[in-house]
């Protein structure tokens, strides 16, 4: 009987190898767990993407609202100016237009709009040369005249200044 007992102890101490069906079932369970995790992560990312898009739309709408609120008083000034023009009050019309222009410049500068300096040497990064013209006493490559003002918003050029540039008198 001691041999039977010894045989039983040996059988109990040896690990039982999993059958191929058990191993397949464990691998399928692990696969399903990873698939569920991947689907949750994908759904979370999709929700994040939609939330970020909504937040961006709200931010843009808020920025538009703020700018429009800044421009409404200017619209009111224009209406008053047009009323004065209808009454043939030239002095009031000129004053009204000046007031509107000042108000608009102030509102746009609050938003970060800055006029590009268009005097001195020509800079192709902020100026657009429409033509060159020879002129005595002016250094070649200098800005002679501003045809249209240029503007930048922060560090970005929105519209380059359109200028006439002094040419070398030998080129003319």
Describe the protein's architecture and organization.
The chain has helices at 2-13, 20-86, 90-110; strands at residues 113-115, 127-134, 143-148, 151-153, 156-159, 161-167. By secondary structure, the chain is of the alpha+beta class. The protein has 2 domains: 1-111, Alpha-Beta Complex (Hemagglutinin Ectodomain, Chain B), CATH 3.90.20; 114-172, Roll (Nucleotide Exchange Factor Grpe, Chain A, domain 2). The strands form 2 sheets. The protein has a 3-stranded antiparallel beta sheet. α2 (20-86) packs antiparallel against α3. The mean pLDDT is 84.
Topology of helices and strands:
Layout: H1 2-13, H2 20-86, H3 90-110, E1 113-115, E2 127-134, E3 143-148, E4 151-153, E5 156-159, E6 161-167
Parallel strand pairs: 2-6
Antiparallel strand pairs: 1-4, 3-6, 4-5
Summarize the structure.
The chain is α+β, with helices and mostly antiparallel strands and 172 residues long. It has 3 helices and 6 strands, in the order αααββββββ.
Characteristic terms for this protein:
single chain, 172 residues, alpha+beta, Hemagglutinin Ectodomain, Chain B, 2 domains, 6 strands, elongated
Mean pLDDT: 84
Distance between the termini: 124 Å
- State the assembly state of the protein chains: single chain
Structural class: alpha+beta
Low-confidence stretches: none
Total number of helical segments? 3
Question: What is the N-to-C order of secondary-structure elements (H for helix, E for strand)?
Answer: HHHEEEEEE
Gyration radius from CA atoms, angstroms? 39 Å
| Structural domains: how many | 2
The dominant shape is elongated
Strand content: 15-25%
Spatial strand order of the main sheet: 1-4-5
């Amino acid at each position: 009987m001691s041999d039977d007992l010894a045989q039983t102890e040996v059988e109990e101490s040896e690990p039982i190898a999993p059958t191929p069906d058990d191993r397949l079932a464990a691998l399928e369970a692990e696969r399903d767990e990873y698939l569920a995790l991947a689907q949750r992560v994908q759904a979370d990312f999709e929700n994040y993407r939609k939330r970020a898009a909504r937040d961006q739309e709200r931010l843009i709408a808020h920025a538009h609202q703020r700018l429009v609120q800044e421009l409404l008083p200017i619209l009111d000034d224009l209406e008053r100016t047009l009323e004065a023009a209808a009454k043939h009050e030239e002095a009031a019309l000129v004053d009204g237009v000046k007031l509107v222009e000042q108000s608009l410049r102030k509102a746009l500068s609050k938003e970060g709009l800055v006029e590009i300096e268009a005097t001195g040497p020509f800079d192709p990064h902020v100026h657009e040369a429409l033509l060159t013209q020879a002129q005595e006493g002016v250094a070649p490559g200098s800005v002679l005249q501003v045809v249209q003002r240029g503007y930048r918003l922060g560090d970005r050029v929105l519209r380059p200044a359109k200028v006439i540039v002094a040419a070398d008198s030998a080129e003319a």
